[in-house]
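Amino Acid Chain and Its Fold in Token Form
===========================================
What this section holds: a protein sequence and its matching fold, both as plain text.
Structure line: whole-number tokens from a learned vocabulary of local backbone shapes, matched to residues.
Purpose: to set a sequence beside its fold so the mapping can be learned.
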Amino acid sequence: MLPTVNFFGREITRLILGDNPAHGNTYIPDLITREEMTEYFTPDNIVKMLFSSQDAGYNTVLALASPLMLDALRRFRTEGGKLHIRNRIKISLNNSQKCDIIEISEKKEVFQDGKINKKNAANNGRKANKDISCRMCK
């Protein structure tokens, strides 16, 4: 297991798995393109990545609450995955290019029956920043 820290009463690894590759976000576009990344990171391969990361000692994933990631995370849990899941929900504001990032704890079901449970998200979340310019909202 990787070294951990206490994060609001939960021991999480100091190294956290992110989901940028699954969404095609690349910092080395000359070596691997967005298209190549999104082609590779199918829901099946995302689930494999989650299990491989868990096996390598990660215990936490920070993921955008996109349909792609929510599907993969649901499958990961169903297949016995044990990572702590921290979701970020992107909410567009008046068709502007700004969004709220909300951190969701695991205590309540935020995503139910294919839809976001707005009441649980609002009661169980914490707004981080109201005016964040976000590439995903463009």
